[in-house]
Amino acid sequence: MVLVSLINVSSNQVQNIRKDLVKVGAELVIGKNTVITTALKLRASPLDKNMEDFEFFNRFGAPKPELNNLKEHLVGKFGMVFSNLSVFDLKPIIASNKRAAVAKVGVTSTVDVTIPTGSTGMDPS
């Protein structure tokens, strides 16, 4: 599984990435952060035998406490890529869909912008 950030990624780009990943047998899953966090928490901790759906959840095997390490990375818009390929094989597929975008109000730049001191030729008013 590979976590990917989807900040500043358009829905059209996500659709194109999904199409390219399916061709190599991978799948991009995007869901609500709270649902994903709840599912990981449920999978990482031992099940309560008195819970309503114990038999259903118990079919998935023993708890996996290492899933708790993902919690700190589940911030903002993100997706999970599931595949048998290595991250080194997946990265070029995802990066090939990278597109330049126009600046929008309130969006943080991903590159440093330096404006030299001096006259801009614009009136300060």
Topology as a string of helices (H) and strands (E)? EHEHHEH
Sheet with the most strands? Answer: 3 strands, antiparallel
CATH superfamily: Ribosomal protein L10, N-terminal RNA-binding domain
Spans of at least 5 consecutive residues with low confidence? none
- The structure class reads alpha+beta
Distance separating the two termini = 53 Å
**CATH topology (level 3) name:** Alpha-Beta Plaits
Rough shape?
Answer: elongated
- Taken as a percent bin, the fraction of beta residues is 5-15%
Structure summary, number of beta strands: 3
Report the helical percentage: 25-40%
* CATH classification, class level: Alpha Beta
Number of domains: 1
Task: Please state the CA-atom Rg, rounded to the nearest Å.
Answer: 21 Å
Strand order of the largest sheet: 1-3-2
Number of helices: 4
CATH architecture verdict: 2-Layer Sandwich
Mean pLDDT: 88
